[in-house]
Amino acid sequence: MTKYVIHGGRPLFGEIEISGAKNAAVAIIPAALLVDGVCRIENIPQISDVTLLLKILQELGADVRTVDRTTVDIDCTHIRNAKVPDGMARQIRASYYLIGALLGRFGSSQVPPPGGCHLGARPIDQHIKGFVAMGADVDVSGGYINARAQDGRLQGGQVYLDIVSVGATMNIMLAAVLAKGMTIIENAAKEPHIVDLANFLNSMGADIMGAGTDVIKIRGVDRLNGGAYSIIPDQIEAGTYMAAVAAAGGEVRIKNVIPKHLDCITAKLVEMGVEVEESDDSVLVRRDPNRRLNRTNVKTLPYPGFPTDMQPQIAVALCMAEGTSVITEGVWDSRYRYVDEIRRMGAKVQVDGKIAVIEGVDKLTGAPVQACDLRAGAAMVIAGLAAQGTTEVDCVHYIERGYEDIVRKLSGVGADIRVVVTPDEEKTQASVG
Ligand code: EPU
User: Fold this and answer.
1) Most exposed among 130, 152, 177, 231, judged by the fewest C-beta atoms under 10 Å?
2) Crossing angle of helices 22-31/235-248, nearest 10°?
3) Residue 372 catalytic?
4) Whose CA is nearest to atom 5 of ligand 1?
């Protein structure tokens, strides 16, 4: 059992360096399956979802070499197997990208249904709709999602997504790059990681146009060649640290970011009274710890709207704002499981379906809480940093799925946060710098 112990109530000062984007990396790593030759992928975040995906590729027969802490070489040239072993694939959501990538490369794929955080129903019908539009038969049997191109190779097709889906947009792109002819995705998602996946594939020889708009056109090519590509910085990791400064106060320069990707988060924080100064590849975030935040309303939406993956973190900051704020979750059915935890710290939050009403309080007080999922876990850390007293955050493996070195990064800006490992009830303290 590993938990984080946080002595809160200290403002944060200093600099934090942002890692590569999780939700880009988890699509780009499977995309290496489509490439003939060695892909060098740089700026890979060191998080457990990435480690698992690299292991799955190795299980399939890929040659994966670590070049340095953030760079891997992946060579999938000799893979002959389109069946992903059960086990690891079920632990992560992004294993669904293996369906599109293997189907594109081999004309068939067998992949266990994906896992991931519990955010309500997480269907993949729109992914399947896209594969079917390209001439695949898809069924679920024997604990596998089985997909097979009717003629051994997918054909370009046209798909209108009924709902804007990040996963479906990227999965259909993966399947389409080696298909015969043109595929058109309408009502596509526009997140920065969609553009990043398209840039990765194009740099290896694919022909994808329109990524970042709601119509993406993919002209199939016969093969992709190896090359090198650097993943974009993580928008949500950056936003999480911005929210931490908003909640705890202080002044932190958040480095290695694309400020444009943060606009949707910056705009809300500014409304809340946080100062944000943008530079070329960093943002300086400042909040006077002696002044309370302003209330605001937040509605989560697909990009460029306010990201659902920032909803718990901004909600925690709003728990300490002056006045009442309303949050509307516009993407997931069930993303308020953390509310019970934050109430233990003195927050006043009422949830009705997709709406949370937050009545700001003067202060939160430390308590033992759980990370219910990745972003909820990050929100608990933020609450602990801002609260008076000691907070213990349990189930931190969720947080480590998506945040590289969160304890070290926060310690570096003056947070009092430690990792505590508890084997058989006996507490052993590990050093965290
Ligand atoms: N949806 C469908 N059918 C589908 C696909 C999606 O109805 O076939 C619905 C979902 O139920 C949801 C909405 O469409 O209500 C949007 O889902 P989307 O497909 O965009 O989500 P995802 O691809 O499964 C990714 C991220 C999530 C992030 C969402 C939205 C990965 C691995 N996951 O999920 O990230 O919340 O996009 O931006 O990229 C996280 O990082 O903490 C996380 C949960």
Assistant:
1) 152
2) 170
3) no
4) 124
